[in-house]
Amino acid sequence: VSRSIIRRWKRNLINAPFYKNLLLTKQPFPVITKTEFMHHFDSINTVAITKKKAFEVSLKSEVSRDFSPSINGISVGLSTGTSGNRGIFLTNQREREMWVGMVLERVIGLSLHRRKVAFFLRANNNLYESIKSKLLQFHFFDIRTSITLHFEHLVALQADILVAQPSVILELSKEYKRTHTTPRFSKIISVAEVLEEDQKIYFKNFFNCPIDQVYQCTEGFLAHTCRLGNLHFNEDFLHIEKKYLDSQKKRFHPIITDYLRYTQPVVRYELNDIIHQGAACSCGLKSTVIAKIEGRLDDVFRFTKEHKEVIIYPDFLRRAVVTAAPHAYTYRVSQVSNSLIYFYLETEDESKKQESISLVTNALTELLHDYDLTDIQVTYNHYEHITATKFKRISNDYTSKIQN
Ligand SMILES: [Zn+2]
To answer: Which pLDDT does position 108 carry in this prediction?
Structure first.
């Protein structure tokens, strides 16, 4: 990050009461989590907006379905999340334009051809709806409406670029297959959910085009895919510290400082995403490569056995499923209680489903045995995904519920 960017950022940061004294006395900034970030909301933002006011405005707008709530020109965004744990984010017009501009440049890439972008998103995302560009024509599809209903319009549109979350891309692939239509995108950009390697390969083969990924959340635009297909942190405006989670230093939580956020500074903010670092990339970018986003800390399975906590990282559960049932193109494993795991899967070839179910039941049971967990039931259970929500393959529905 260049010095002039940092200087300008500090000149603004002094307007946040939470950081003012620390800056003046040259003390280090504390690492904060979402809980602290929300707790100190009133003194962290630089525009003197209270949390109470911000929540009032955003909740009112959900009821009236006016999806661009603002206070004196400052836009108020409510992040998804369980009710007790929702974050609230403030941005001004300039920050929003910069964000969108950067996403377009880094992800869609510049070209002199006029292109159409089909963008599947939740309608209440006021970040993108203001996009105007001479060369890119955006068409928005509200993912709360059934994909089947959108499909005809999508095909007629003949879009060049598709932007959607993996669970929506999968639904679209089913529609293409069902209707014997050939997709013709020049690029697909995966957003919102984690794109896993097996999904990436499946989509690449099915759609016959590159599949890029954007890693962003309300906390910031964190990473994008480079021309060689690797996911890089945007370290030209983000400072990333790593909090390692295991002694082998394989997994870490990123602690982010975003030098482009002015209205509500994001300073040493610890995300609970679990990241695996990748090897350096030869594309020319020096920034950290993300080998994999394993999930969030609250996706980790946690069992209590003889008063001790046994934890299983999402990756091990994924590997067990994928190895046992390579034909499963979508699946879900969830911890339901201290003694029950549900899983669900779909195979492209329906005739392989029953066999896959029994293989996965065995594989997960074996995995649990490796952890000395011998009295946990593994059961196949149908799962209906609601398109408008984020789909997670590995989900802890038990301890994450207790914590909220
Ligand atoms: Zn690269």
So the answer is: 80
Q: What is the pLDDT of residues 124-165, one digit of tens each?
A: 555 665 566 677 788 889 887 888 899 999 999 999 999 999
- Strands (E) in 234-327, as ranges, are 238-244, 251-258, 266-270, 273-277, 289-296, 301-305, 308-312
> Is-contact 329 346, C-beta < 8 A?
yes
Mean pLDDT on 389-396: 88
CB 232, CB 287: distance < 8 Å: yes
Q: Which of 85-89, 290-294, 362-366 has the lowest mean pLDDT?
A: 85-89
Cα(227) to centroid(ligand 1), Å: 6
Taking residue 220's Cβ as centre, other Cβ atoms within 10 Å add up to 21
Query: Whole-prediction pTM value?
Result: 0.84
CA of 200 relative to ligand 1 center, distance in Å: 17
- Tell me the two tokens of residue 401: 């519920």
CA–centroid distance, residue 282 to ligand 1 (Å) = 6
In angstroms, the first-to-last Cα distance of the chain is 36
Distance in Å, CA 226 to ligand 1 centroid = 5
Per the structure block, which two tokens stand in for 146?
Answer: 């059934």
Amino acid sitting at position 70: S
Element (H or E) spanning 164, and its range? strand 161-164
What is the CA(274)–ligand 1 centre distance, in A? 20
For residue 88, name the pLDDT band (cuts at 50, 70, 90). Answer: confident
Angstrom distance (rounded) from CA 202 to CA 391: 17
Residues 333 and 364: their CA atoms lie apart, in Å, by 9
Q: Lowest-pLDDT range, 82-91, 181-190, 272-281? A: 82-91
- Do 363 and 355 meet the contact criterion of CB atoms below 8 Å apart? no
